[in-house]
Amino acid sequence: MSEYKGPPAADPGALGVGTSRGGSAMLVAQSGLAPRHGRAGGILGGLGPLVRLLQGWISTYFSLLLLGMMALAIGLTGVQHGVTLMGEQIKNALVLGAIYALVAIGYTMVYGIIELINFAHGDVFTASGFYAFGFASLFHLDSLATGSFGGLILALVIVFPLSMIAAGVTGALIEFVAYRRLRDAPRLAPLITAIGVSFLIEGIMLVVEGPDNVTTHMASWINGEAFSIAGVSVGYTDLFVIGMALVLMFALGAFVRRTRLGKAMRSTAQDRTAALLCGININRTISATFFIGSALAAAAAIIYSINYGVLKWNIGFHLGIIAFTAAVLGGIGNIVGAGVGGFLIGIIYVFGGSLFGGEWSEALIFAVLVLILTFRPVGLFGVEVTTRA
Amino acid sequence: MALLELAHVSKRFGGLLAVSDVSFNLDRGEILSMIGPNGAGKTTAFNCVTGLFPITSGSITLDGEPISGLPPHRITKLGIARTFQNIRLFAFMTAVDNVMVGAHWWMKERVWDGAFRTGRARREERSVEQRALELLDLLGLSRYAGSYAREMPYGLQRRLEIARALATQPRLLLLDEPAAGLNTQEKKELMQLIARLRDEGLTILLIEHDMRLVMEVSHRIVVLDHGEKIAEGSPADVRTNPRVIEAYLGTGASNEMQSA
Amino acid sequence: MPDRFRSLFRADTGQGQRTRGNTVFWILSSTAAALVLMGWLLPWFVDAYSAGAGFSPQDALISPPTGVGTILIYVLAVTMVILVASPLVEPLARLRGTTFGRRADRIRLIAALVGFALTVVIWFLVSVIQEEPLFGSFGPGTYTDSAVWLTMYGYALAALVYGARPWVVGRQTLAFGIAVLPFGIFLPLMFHQAPDFLDWAAGSLAIYMLLALGLNVVVGFAGLLDLGYAAFFAIGAYACASFASPTHNIHWPLWILIFLGAAIASLFGAVLGAPTLRLRGDYLAIVTLGFGEIIPDLATNNVFNLTGGPNGISGIDQPKFWFLNFSTSPRWYYWSLLLVSLVVIVLLRNIERSRVGRAWVALREDEVAAASTGINTTTTKLLAFAIGASVSGLAGAFYGSIVSIVSPDDFSFSVSIAVLSIIVLGGIGNIAGVILGSFILTFVIFWVLPNMNEWSTTLSQTVHVPGLAGIDFSSYTYIIYGLALILMMLLRPGGLLPSRARQIELESGGESESLAAVQGVA
Question: Which residue from C minimizes the CA distance to B118?
């Protein structure tokens, strides 16, 4: 055991470095050793603490504020336009919310697993709407579905799986061709590619389907009023849309929680390297994620088509951004959150429209998006976590 | 008065208390080492001091002025510079540019000066470049001045990081495992460099696993374990502290300590 | 794809400088070849503007010139063949491992000089002296000036490229500038016979070039993805429209408005950026996308009665400086835009090399280290955002004045994507690349595609294929943007003319962790 000798004396020459040039050269700027004062820089700097306090406060109570404002909007609509319209709007919000929720799940799953905003997802939605339209005309499902109840069930049993598989394959193919090679590239690269894929799909649909609305006839599949409460007529279509969305979401929940593939997805999302080391086939898991997300988007597109009866080459773009907002609202990466967020966004969209006028709905959604990302990027139900040290 | 003062600093990540009620002072011109097993919270403490993490409770003051809650760049302006455990250089900038980034905050050149290349801006650019080259020269890096940081040998990258930190004109330098991955010769040079920085008046806070280096250069040592400070004192004290040997060194590592 | 094939299209990262120089060289030499060729083919394309044909091969085939002077034309054809072949031959030779020596370059240089001289001589004989006997059926009006200009330009470029190869390879940015600048300046003179080409040059090429230069600051220098860039363009255009139209009865001159547009746009940029620039990169992308959608929405909804609703604002003043009347020809717009672009290029290049430019690179590479080295990440990003926005606003003011009517549809998401595609195609972070990208993309999207409708209709009548007549080629725009973005990112992420560091960065994939992520803010 050697004795403690204390720090050795400085011997610049022994550094083996060129100190020859002017022996007085100093490593440490002597002027820098003087005390300095951390004056707040600039005008905004002085406001810093105040702004931070305000921001912290809004972040903490963001969920309450937003939910409160939504309740207020619903109430105001009731007061302004009467209870019947309010009920009608709630129904519309739920129908729209069901579609957003299904699309949002695709965004959230992909973001959760490879941290990519899949801009193409909204366009996969549109494309699968056209797939369904194609299958419906190919197998003459329109007459089958409107003929009898059994025919309707048969038509649905044909169109749902086929379109979902086609869309799933599309989604997985997009991942394989466009994103896989860029998985370890800087973030900017896959993001730009995703926009490219989005534009490519939109462009193809524009060329194939034309620039105008396309009527799909699927709106005539389900008809009639199921019941009415307080003057609000609830159709079978509405029930079907909401019911189908819920069934699919629960099925997905069970799949992710119970199956091996679901577990593989969750572990890949948490730590890709660790998952790889545990023998999980990362590529297959990611492909499966894209497949499932896109298949859900296809389901959303079919119920959209059944509900509204028209498609257009670019509807997926705006719908996609709104659904992405829903995913962020629910906490990106959180599947349940995306489902709930979808319905919340549906309410914001419909009631914002009825309060400020329909032309403001989209601007309102974007404003909500900016606000969430600024004040509560972890989403309404997320817990703030700091990543690695 | 102490230059840097940590008083009851805690940092919590969710359920994990990474730093728990740690207090210590750092006097001017002193070299204080922080040691402890992996995951003891040393780097977390560094990140708290440099403003990368907001602290959960407690206070950090520099020269009597509270710095906790300030953003990292403001803390750098107040005179704290640091290096990183896993080297964080600007990989695709040249060595001299890396060092010049260190001069960013004290350069007077504004955007319009740069845009119109005013005489003032050009003069300042030249003098800062001169200073950067001088720093590189003093650290034995002048051969690599024009190469990309990532093309440099590992040991020199560590030294370049120190050069960048010195360019910010710090009063206090935080070195996070500067000897990691260095060979014996490089470690010896590092030791001399630290001694020289001390002689020129710089205060240094050091995290290091290499006990020989720690024992030789430090005036005092703080030992962390599981986020708590378990010992503080001169190298001789710490080495003989039974709690340190028991909690930190364990059985196998105590031999390393003995041989140091 | 075998590596040796890939090396043809992709600059080698290992030995950056040399192969990159080769890329620029290849681009310039093939441009020269294309121009020489285009000059010959052009009369055929633009025969709407000139009575007949010209130096074009097929015309020579249909009615071969018969006079003694014909020999000159065949000599010219030989020079053309040499110059068109060499950029094709060279990569093939590289594949086989052989290189062309100095002698080959000397032959090409001679061919270029001879070609240049012959073009001048023939043009002089045909148009000025009208030597009918020399060329038989040739006569005035049987060629286009544009063809002559382009041919001469191509030969001059070839002479530069082959005559000074080491210099071109060594100082490629300068070489690129010298090659491009005269083309930019003389463009309105070259194509004075084609008015819609001038409209394209002023309204599309020059405007998009400015836009791309501005976005390049945000995406290329600072590494922030801004998908709502068209919003600032809209703000500039609406500013111009409000202050120079009968709508509010204010008539300010354009040169004030471009500064005003720039100032207002950068103000908006700062206001948008201040809360959002702390976010991670991909969140920033979607927030800016949202902003880009909100601004046209506001304009459509006629907020505060300022924007004229969906119809927009019309009757914007056409500036008049002294004797220059902008309304008579777009060429004055084009030249003023060119001048402004040059000033912008010089300023941006200076900034890129200054203290702030260094801070941008540092931020892009490692935000955490940058913050710990004393860089204020938020204000530095904000600066990039505001500078980018101001250039966009400036372009917007010009645009408003050129088209004299602005409406919300002009500023849709596809404008932002067009600008993004330009910089991705040209080379993210490299000004020369951005210029190249804006030329290629705007030429294809705003000149070739709209004209394709007409060409294909004509072609369908000539060859009697009715299917060709009905195609709307402008609907292929989206596909082109999409393919440009995907293919460039997959195959050549640095762009056609990559900036060296940016290219390695994008290809090597050093992931930079954002400060926000580390601090747990976002």
Answer: C350
